[in-house]
């Protein structure tokens, strides 16, 4: 492999057939990686209000308690482990 002199030169060789290549999202934003996992994307305004994992968890636990106390909704809320 030749050492690339210009790192901004992204020319592909003619031997690559781009029509046969698929484009797939990679990393944490790939839908198949997030499906069924505990990874969620928060809106920017929510991130500002709750900047850490613990802050988000604490707020959600408070909402769960409020729902339990109100008795208005019959949500299946698991009991918190001590």
List strands and helices in order, with pairings.
Layout: H1 31-34, H2 44-49, H3 53-70
Description:
By secondary structure, the chain is mainly α. It has a domain of 41 residues. Helices cover 34% and strands 0% of the residues. The chain starts with 30 loop residues before the first helix and ends in a 12-residue tail after the last helix. The model has no long low-confidence stretch (mean pLDDT 75).
Could you say which structural class the secondary elements and strand pairing correspond to? mainly alpha
Low-confidence stretches: none
β-strand percent reads under 5%
Number of helices: 3
End-to-end CA span: 57 Å
Descriptors:
mainly alpha, 82 residues, 34% helix
Quick structural gist:
The protein has 82 residues and is mostly helical. Helix content is 34%, strand content 0%. The chain has a domain at 42-82.
């Amino acid at each position: 492999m030749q050492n690339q002199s210009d790192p901004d030169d992204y020319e592909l060789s003619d031997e690559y057939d781009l029509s046969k290549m698929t484009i797939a999202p990679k990393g944490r934003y790939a839908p198949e990686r997030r499906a069924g996992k505990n990874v969620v994307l928060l809106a920017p305004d929510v991130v500002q209000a709750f900047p850490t994992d613990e802050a988000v968890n604490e707020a959600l636990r408070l909402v769960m308690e409020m729902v339990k106390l109100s008795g208005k909704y019959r949500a299946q809320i698991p009991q918190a482990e001590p």
